[in-house]
Hints:
This protein is mainly β. Helices cover 11% and strands 35% of the residues. Strand 3 and strand 4 (76-78) form a beta hairpin. The longest helix has 14 residues, at 2-15.
Amino acid sequence: xxxxxxxxxxxxxxxxxxxxxxxxxxxxxxxxxxxxxxxxxxxxxxxxxxxxxxxxxxxxxxxxxxxxxxxxxxxxxxxxxxxxxxxxxxxxxxxxxxxxxxxxxxxxxxxxxxxxxxxxxxxxxxxxxxxxxxxxxxxxxxxxxxxxxxxxxxxxxxxxxxxxxxxxxxxxxxxxxxxxxxxxxxxxxxxxxxxxxxxxxxxxxxxxxxxxxxxxxxxxxxxxxxxxxxxxxxxxxxxxxxxxxxxxxxxxxxxxxxxxxxxxxxxxxxxxxxxxxxxxxxxxxxxxxxxxxxxxxxxxxxxxxxxxxxxxxxxxxxx
Length: 319
């Protein structure tokens, strides 16, 4: 009766979504079931079993090095870490697998996904099903992070993985005066023009990819929304679009889309030049699994400009 009461308490803790009850130390047992035990009674005082942390670069949680199931008698038994379609979670004390089928997130839930929690069998599973009716000892759970071993991503994790897969490059800077021309320079108060030289889908967008991730198809589109030009003199100019390429025939006029005028020479700067940095603000919009989101990314390129001061010359009148 005491063992069954402990099992009921543990079962309730699973249903309400909290960590299973465990002692500070436990006895590891191996065997084919509750009736066969080979127990390590060395009293080493092992910590309660946990799951490894999620790998932030992949969005996946690796399977535990040892999978332990706490049965109704309070002892932990070594079980297979995979049931073939699901993976054991020491934290949740069940086999976790991807939930297949349409199901809305819980009200107020953030990013996450549904997973099936299937118990390993024995008295523990029977008690859980007595507490709350469940089909074949399985309970569905909404989790923000994927459980161990699951190769199915949540929609948000799939979107982030898609964004990370984009090979985005910095723009080729278009600039007047042209820094590629030797001794090219400008002057205080004279208009500077900035633009994106020969924009491509990987330097400006839109760049679209459709990939099956996390058990569903994810569509993502990367697009530069603006470029922040740090002019090197303490000024930042935000420009939308690719800008307007300069043509000599335009003369000394301001750019209609993206430009700047320096108020001081670059004489005091390292190398006698201002360093100009163009930071592209990318927006990766993704959708999949009934969810959507936007992920910001940036790329950066730079150039230099020599700013001098116009000298006035007084010319005497002819006699």
